[in-house]
Amino acid sequence: MPGMCFFLGTLVFIAVLGIVGTGFSNILFFRLIQLSSPVFASSVTYIIPVVAFMLGFFVMDETLSLLQGLGALIVLVGVYFSSRK
């Protein structure tokens, strides 16, 4: 069954990318916490959807709704209020 071999190979590569990506991002995240404050490090997590929104709109020519833009604005406002002293 050549299809089954392809399927298992695909799953292996997905698992490796997931594990390596997660491990690398966790190491960077904890290093960011060491170099800055926990509030700043957590704001990075909140900005990820905004970056994805911009990549989809400007780079991949996706159509995005007003509701998605409003959601991104809410994320930015939340990051602003959480990082204020």
Summarize the topology:
Elements: H1 2-35, H2 38-59, H3 66-83
Helix pairs in contact: 2-3
Describe the structure.
The chain is an all-alpha fold. 87% of the residues lie in helices and 0% in strands. It is built from three helices and no strands. Helix 2 (38-59) packs antiparallel against helix 3.
Supply database-style keywords:
single chain; flat
Order of SSEs: HHH
- Overall pLDDT: 80
Judging from the principal axes of the Cα atoms, what is the shape? flat
| C-alpha termini separation | 61 Å
Strand segment tally: 0
Q: What radius of gyration results from the CA coordinates?
A: 18 Å
Question: Major beta sheet, specifics?
Answer: none
- Strand residues, percent: under 5%
* Low-confidence spans: none
Number of helices: 3
* Structural class category: mainly alpha
Percentage of helical residues?
over 70%
Concise summary:
The protein has 85 residues and is mainly α.
